[in-house]
Design brief:
Elements: H1 30-45, E1 50-52, E2 62-65, E3 73-83, E4 87-92, E5 102-107, E6 110-115, E7 121-126, H2 128-141, H3 152-168
Antiparallel strand pairs: 1-2, 2-3, 3-6, 4-5, 6-7
The chain binds nickel (II) ion (NI).
């Protein structure tokens, strides 16, 4: 499995971080703000819509988002407090799984509570792309990848493809 390497974190090339449950952020301080800014910069550079701590080898509960039509957001120690019963299909990709795209079914709307980089608590209800990105990034904090949400046969096909990529690089 290919994982993106970010210059500011040479340890990032370990796929094990992607499979672990991230621990809580203890202090929202200058160091964490610096990390959040670096994550936003990486997300911009990679033209991603979201990036979670474990993707840069940081096993902390933090992710950033930039959904289309929305501002850039930082979520620290988030909790998804509600999801809609209505589910929708939407094509997902992941900076940690380059070249892999698949339709994933998830709740259409979510309500999430978190803290921002200033240490301020907030709650938002999201739908559309933002709801999708939030759920995808939240999964990263739990060690879950979007391919885990696919039917078993489809997931196996993708894993075989990733294995092949790994052998040729
Ligand atoms: Ni991802």
């Amino acid at each position: 499995m290919k994982v993106l390497c970010f210059e500011n974190n040479p340890q990032a090339c370990s796929d094990t971080a992607l499979r672990q449950k991230a621990g809580p952020v203890k202090n929202i301080d200058d160091e964490l703000r610096k990390t959040a800014m670096e994550m936003i910069e990486s997300m911009r550079r990679e033209r991603g819509v979201g990036l979670a701590g474990p993707q840069i080898g940081l096993l902390k509960r933090i992710f950033v988002t930039h959904a289309e039509g929305d501002s850039e957001r930082v979520f620290i120690n988030p909790t998804i407090i509600w999801t809609s019963q209505e589910q929708v299909k939407y094509e997902e990709g992941c900076l940690s799984l380059p070249g892999i795209w698949a339709d994933v079914i998830r709740p259409e709307c979510v309500k999430i509570q978190a803290w921002n980089e200033k240490g301020r608590a907030f709650t938002i209800e999201a739908s559309g792309v933002l709801a999708r990105v939030i759920q995808h990034e939240y999964d990263h904090l739990e060690g879950i990848l979007f391919i885990d949400r696919l039917p078993e046969a489809k997931k196996e096909k993708i894993l075989a493809k990733l294995q092949k990529q790994k052998q040729t690089t």
